[in-house]
Amino acid sequence: MGIFKHIQELKLRVEAKRMFKALVSDIDNTPLPASITSIDKVQEDGSGTIRKTNFADGFCVKHKIEVVDTENYVSKHTVLEGPLIGDKIESIHYEQKFEHSSDGGCIAKIASEYHTKGDIQLNDEEIKATGDQILVFYKLTEEHLLAHPDICT
């Protein structure tokens, strides 16, 4: 198995606490952006919660939540199933952290670790394309929170 790492940063116009609540700690009670039809708990036990996110375009992603640090706005999860998992990738491990920025928004720092099947190698373009999909989801969440300033406060 190969392991490939990728780090991204994204400047957002929503404060760290709201982004963290919307994407992690209060996701079960947060109104969803139009691109998501539902988020369902598939399993909840001592080793972590497994959630399935269903998107309006028909695909879904199953991920295991492993760490939720509400004081430092850090979470860790592993994507187990979905369009990013296929012939080449066995799993993707994410660590996301939201840090305050001086303008009232935040900086999202996302560290990704791609575990490939067998001896498969990923090139920079494949890793960037996968990372870009995550950034789109963050931007959709940001837009949703900006349009609804009363949620995740």
TrEMBL record:
This is Bet v I/Major latex protein domain-containing protein. SUPFAM superfamilies: Bet v1-like (SSF55961). InterPro entries: Bet_v_I/MLP, Bet_v_I_allergen, Plant_def-hormone_signal, START-like_dom_sf. Belongs to the BetVI family. It comes from Castilleja foliolosa. It holds the Pfam family Bet_v_1. Residues 4-147 form the Bet v I/Major latex protein domain. Gene3D superfamilies: 3.30.530.20. It comes from the Eukaryota.
